[in-house]
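Blinded run. Sample ID left blank on purpose so nobody reads anything into the name before looking at the predicted structure. Input follows.
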Amino acid sequence: MPINVVNIPYGNKNPYQNLMYSACKPEFCLVASKNAPLSTIAKADFQPDQSIIHIHWDDRLFPNPETEEQGSEFRSSCDGLRQYQANGGRVIWTIHNQFAHSEGGETDYFRNIRRELANIVDLIHVHTPHARQHMIDEYDVDPDKLRVIPHPSYLGVYEAAEQTLKRPLPLRERTHFLSFGTMRGSRELERLEDAAKKLTNRGHDFQVSVVGRVYPSGRRLMRRLRSNRNTTVVPERIPDSEIAQVFSNAHAYMLPSTTTFTSGTAMLAQTFGLPILGPDIDAHKHTTPEACHDLLYPAQSPRGLIRMMMRMLSMTDKELAEKRQACLDFAVERSPHRISSDLKRALSELA
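Blinded prediction complete.
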């Protein structure tokens, strides 16, 4: 019989969890949580066929409480986890981000939750060596608890892998830059807007597409982007059926954030052969092939992004095709099946 691994919470809009478990059968079976409070896992009826719990997105699971009653839910959850372990259950926790995605960011409450969970769980999964060191330095995590398993690519998710890997370089009548995902402040898209504006004012011909949901706080930036004749904004979540087309039409991916911790969209972009333009920080270096590290610029350089965009504009098709192939090879190296096999080994330690 397979061992059920209950993922709490489970996200059905993002294929990440299904990718991570794609090679775990028949020994382990991903089970979606039913949104029950963690405190209920100590109850007897949860025990018989639930041997491992896999915690994700702790900031979403334990948001900053607005009332004292909400604050007590985390304490009850910790008690439930400890009782679950006493009953023979094991717990693994994946660290997805450095700070909470909410406006609160890294509050004392957020840090206290992380410190408490780090003490309770049996294993902690991070995606990069940079994230591993962060958990050691900031939360005094025992290194023996940590497992580095990279974020998988998206090969075979939005179209057949063979189709993705054999697609030729898109025509370059205009070099096409892409940014994809929810327009949060942490993505620092103001840097993209400023670089695109300066290149446009100098008479360069190119295209920047910004695709993803825009919150009210991002509407002013969206208007500035739209005022540039070389930029377009699609301010909404696009259907999965359109993702392959959006990425396959672009030549490079813009990732100007200086605080990236884990970037699933970087792996998505490289799955379609788009090299990453972004700051030279550990999180980016650990998520890109070495052959493309020369497209990462000094993080504190005010002109770094515009210089890389200019380099991309002047790059020959031959050189760009080489960067593209390096990204595709990287996507194969981090294919879901290979990465999932690493998770399977970690789960086997718990079983």
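Unblinding after everyone has recorded impressions. The mean pLDDT is 92.
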